[in-house]
Structure formats: structure tokens, C-alpha cells
Amino acid sequence: MATVELLSPAGDFERLKAAFHYGADAAYLAGQEFGMRSASPNFSHEEMCRAAELAHGLEKKIYVTCNTLPRNDELDALPGFLESCEAAGADALIISDMGVLRMAKKYAPHTEIHISTQTGVVNSEAACMLHELGASRVVLAREMTLEEIADIRAKTPRELEIEAFVHGAMCVSFSGRCLLSNYFTGRDGNRGECAQPCRWKYSLMEETRPGRYMPVEETKNGTFILNSRDLCMADHIPELIKAGVYSLKIEGRAKADYYVASVTKAYRGAIDAAMENRPLPEWVMPELDKISHRAYGTGFYYDKNGPGQDSERGGYVREWEVACVSLGMVDENHVRLSQRNRFFAGEPLDVLCPQEEPFTVTLSEMKNSDGEEIEAAPPATMEVTARVSHPVPAGAYLRRLRGDKK
Do residues 147 and 280 both lie within one domain? Predict the structure, then answer.
């Protein structure tokens, strides 16, 4: 199989480190302007310089999103932003607007151009035209089947890379072109401010009966008629590679560092197995159930009608939580931990770390920072030491089933 790239999201520097630490080949991030995730902390120019230095020191890459649809009164700020991205060492700019592409060629001439999924590329003619305009990669619209991707790959220059999403939230609108958030809240989804009203619960009100809400029911909890399932293609990596996808992209720049670490780890395992012609490791799919997610589906890859809706709930499946984060081994038998959610002595915890498959440890002889033996760790971020039967490296996440799921 051809070499492929695992591309992970990074909403801030901690998430960037998690992406690289857990196996990403590249990460995509945003500056303080022109990115489609305004809720994330994102990166100042100085932080972007640090990010590029970190990535290149690890022989990895960073791609900067410049994929909003800027209005005319915002164009004066673009030259300086584009110049700063190139000066920082960005490996590529992710662009959806043709005017921004034109300006990028002028103000960041040595930085590669990747065409954002929001451009809506669904055919080979569009891909070829964008390549002629200077793009080295197209991020295809999410509304593509594997057969359609393979056909585009066959009819485009080999040097034009194809990127596609493999995991994360799906939009009810075509490639994110939605006005619901703007209509309901004044927050423009095309400018990085989506409030996700597609996830809300809706009822029906008859015109002559104002204030009387009638449920549109599929279950006793109502119907979430716009709530798309999350995309999950971890068990279909060989098919994606065969179709010609070079870069496998994980959605989630607004997600926490734990999410980035867990999903990156799972897809690293899936990709490595595919490249070595091995079966999917048994731990990969269970790992993806240990993060907060909506019901999973395979998007449009096998069905032109799309992922379908999760009509039973508007929120997330949250069966697991991070109990603590390892601060490193104190000696060969004891680990120091920083609390995230309450956990107990004698409780088995599932460990996520970069170096090996997830494993379970049981904490014993648990003590607080004063050396006093304790049975539980309830205070937020309190530090404890505990005896473990297996080394737990610094930065590892220790997870537990939520109390209501045991």
C-alpha cells in the first residue's frame, strides 16, 4: 500500500503535543483569525512559530486553516496574516475561498495550498482546476462515496494529494454550508462560530395554538431530526487507501487533548495495521468508544444518502471519563497522578499511553501529597501517589467507567 498521512486536530498547544505524542504525522490548527473554529483557543503568531519548530523537530508538519469566507472589509487583514503564517513556518494553508487562494499565492508564495472541504470539491474537473491554480492538495467534500473518490483519483494528476475526513462530527448541511446557527443565534457557522442548532431537540407548534408545543416523537425523549451520526472509519482504512486517499483527517479542533490523544492513537493503530497487511487490532474500536461521541456511522462512503440521524438523543455518548493523568513514575513501583475525576484505591483503571496498547492497572497504597494514606481522590487536580503493577509513563491518561455505567 502507498504511504498515507494521519492528520490530527490541534485547538491549542497542548492538543498539538497530544497529536504528535500519540502518532499523528501532521496537525492542522488555526491562527487568531480566519479559522473555522473560533471557540478553540487557537494559536498566536509566537505559538505558531513554536508549533512549527516542534513539528519540524519531529519531522512532522503543521497546516494552518484560513478557511472562513471573509467579507470585503476583512481583506485588508489577510496579507499580514498570510505573511505571518509563512514566516512562522507553516507547511500549508487550508483555503476555501478563491480570493484568499489568489492572495496566498502573492503573500505566502512558498507555502503549499490545500483546498478546504468547504470548497465542496466533488469532481475531477474541479480538482484539476484547483491544481492548476496552485493547490497541492484537495480536501474532498464529505458527501463522497469511496467509488467517487477512486474515480477522482484516477482522473487527476498523481502529484495532487487527496485528503478526506475519517472521524468526527458530521454536518447536516453540505460540507458545512449552513445558515441555521446564524438564523437562530447570530453566530455565523461559515465564520467559525457555529452553535450547532442541528443537535437541538425540536417540537411542533400549530399556528393558532401559540405556546402549545407538540412533540415530534420517535421515542419518549422526542426526535432529534437534524442530528447526524459521527463519522468513524477506523475499520475501513484499507478501503480508503485503495480509493486513493493520501491524508486521513480527524475532525475536532474544539475537542480536548484527551480526545485528540485517544482518536489519534486508535487511527495510528489502524493505519499501521493496514500498511502491514494485518487485521485491525482488537483494541482500536473499543478505544473509540472511550471518548465522548455521538452514535457512529460511515458517513457517505458507502451510501450516497449519508450517515443518517441519531434520532434518540441530541447529546453525546459518555460512558468513560478520565480519572487522572500520570505525572510519571516515582520509582519502579509507584506513580504520581493528577486527578481529573474522582477515583478510588483498589479501582481498576484503563491506561492510554503512546508506547503500547491500552492496559489496565489497579491502584493500591494510595497517598496524598502529605504522605497520608487515602481511599479516594475527590478534589480537582489533587496529586496522589499509588502503587501500580505496571509502569505508567508521564502523560498517560487513566480512564474509568462512569459510575452510572458500571
Answer: yes
Question: What's the CA gap between 252 and 256, in Å, rounded?
Answer: 8
Asked if 233 and 293 sit in the same domain, the reply is: yes
Q: Determine if residue 244 is left, alpha or beta; phi over 0 gives left, psi from -120 to 50 gives alpha, anything else beta.
A: left
Q: 382: which DSSP letter?
A: -
| Beta-carbon-side half-sphere exposure of residue 131 (alpha carbons within 13 Å) | 18
The chain-wide mean pLDDT, for the chain, equals: 90
Phi, psi angles (nearest 5°) of residue 283: -80, -15
Residues 283 and 389 in one domain: no
- Rounded mean pLDDT, 357-369: 95
How much is the pLDDT for 51?
98
Other Cβ atoms closer than 10 A to 339: 20
Q: Are 150 and 243 in contact (CB under 8 A)?
A: yes
Q: What is the mean pLDDT of residues 155-161?
A: 97
274 backbone dihedrals φ, ψ, rounded to 5°: -65, -40
Task: State pLDDT tens for residues 164-205.
Answer: 999 998 877 766 666 677 767 777 766 667 777 776 776 677
User: For the segment 370-390, what is each residue's pLDDT rounded down to a tens digit?
Assistant: 999 999 999 999 999 999 999
User: What gap in Å lies between CA 103 and CA 192, rounded to an integer?
Assistant: 20
DSSP 19-52: HHHTT-SEEEEE-SSS-S-TTS----HHHHHHHH
Query: pTM for the whole thing?
Result: 0.89
Cα 190 to Cα 176: distance, rounded to the nearest angstrom: 7
Q: Which domain holds residue 87?
A: 5-174+227-297
Q: In the 8-state DSSP scheme, what is residue 356?
A: E
Counting the structural domains of the chain, the total is 2
Residue 203: closest CA among 191, 192, 212:
212
CATH at 42: 3.20.20.70
Comparing CA positions, the residue from 107, 90, 105 lying closest to residue 35 is 90
Tens of pLDDT, residues 102-114: 999 999 999 999 9
